[in-house]
Specification:
Elements lengths: L6 H13 L1 H9 L4 E7 L7 E6 L2 E7 L7 E5 L1 H10 L3 H9 L4 E4 L2 H5 L2 H19 L1
Parallel strand pairs: 1-4
Antiparallel strand pairs: 1-2, 2-3, 4-5
Length: 134
Amino acid sequence: MTTLFSEAWVKRFGEEWNRESKLVGGLAKSDFNSVIAYGYDNEDAPRVVLKVENGHVVYAGFYAGEALNWDLRASRENWLKWTEKGLGLMSIGMAYTARQLRFKVGDYKAMSKDPRMIGPFITSLSVMGRALKS
């Protein structure tokens, strides 16, 4: 088992992302290209980033000052809970409203209203958990 936001974990997350056809296929249909960061809500900078081109992760590693399209933050406890149990559409909305899941960069409201985006987002959280268990 790897440690959340470790080098081994982020590399595995990128690999698992690319293996998940619902995630890659859904985002590729939207020509999704982004730099997505993940980290803890009490820290200034995110821990890790994924660079995604046409739905595929082309880089997974530590954050090094890249310009971000998305920066997702939560407490360690919440990340671990969500990677273990997952999040559905309603629970993501509740976590966002309760400020347990924060978007320092990116527009959650717009993403949550776009069926091409919200499905892959939910899937990405389960992929985070798979990477943690590997």
